[in-house]
Amino acid sequence: MRDWLWSPEEVKETPSVHRGMPPAEEARIRREGIRLIMEVGAGVRAKAWPTIGTASIYFHRFYMFHTLQEFPREMVAMGCLFLAGKVSETPKKCKDIVTAAQNVFPSVYGNKNRNAFVDEIMGIERVLLQTMKFDLQVDLPYQYLIDYSKKFKLSKAEINSLVQTSWTFVNDSAFTTLCLIWEPQVIAVALLHLSITVRKVNIGLPECWWNEYIANLSINLIDDICHKVRNSGRFSLNV
């Protein structure tokens, strides 16, 4: 099994880019695909942890092997959501995903025949399984937010509030390709740090409190991750 991580340079040189798609356009279409997953996922009452988070990672990984030109983001997004529900033991019926997709995004899915739509999702699921060689377990940052924050010298209410802010940032990070470059532990540390900074909280620990969990993690790297999340473009999507 592989570790499913790539270098930043590799993430810039995706199959879609090699086939002629400008990197900025690919990034925009990836964000649109994640929005489809999130909003249709909400329509079938899927949770960020684990289902939507898992589906988002499947989506980003898929396009490290295939092109957006060959596999449109709207169908891959639904295939990822369907498969993630099964893997995370929160299964959603394919017909329910179809109903939610057509209700939430009629301009994208409204003209599709329902039976053909179900068949397309099933077909994408098979391609996903082959692409990922059935290596489907995904580690997400959410649990690490909870674990790391337990050491903060704050009240329970303050910790819960800080984790909730960090949780939102983790959700936002799905609009980036950070999950292809960094382990979930690193993303969790960075986005807890972002929450601490934004909320101006004194957690009562040394500045580099994360050294206990991840050695040699520089503040410059953490700041770079935070910058990418805050500029993820989630509020300017065209779906």
Give a written overview of the molecule.
With 239 residues, the protein is mostly helical. It has 2 domains: 8-132, Cyclin-like (Cyclin A, domain 1), CATH 1.10.472.10; 141-231, Cyclin-like (Cyclin A, domain 1), CATH 1.10.472.10. Helix content is 62%, strand content 0%. It contains 12 helices and no strands. α10 packs across α11 and α11 crosses α12. It is globular and about 55 Å long. This is Cyclin-K (inferred by orthology to a human protein). InterPro entries: Cyclin-like_dom, Cyclin-like_sf, Cyclin/Ssn8, Cyclin_N. Keywords: Cyclin.
The domain tally reads 2
What is the CATH superfamily of the largest domain?
Answer: Cyclin-like
CATH class of the largest domain: Mainly Alpha
How much of the polypeptide forms β-strand, as a percent range? under 5%
Rounded Rg: 18 Å
> What structural class is derived from the secondary structure elements?
mainly alpha
The CATH architecture of the largest domain can be given as Orthogonal Bundle
Q: What can be said about the biggest beta sheet?
A: none
Number of helices: 12
- Fraction of residues in helix: 55-70%
Characteristics:
239 residues, cyclin, Cyclin A, domain 1, Cyclin/Ssn8, mainly alpha, globular, Cyclin-like_sf
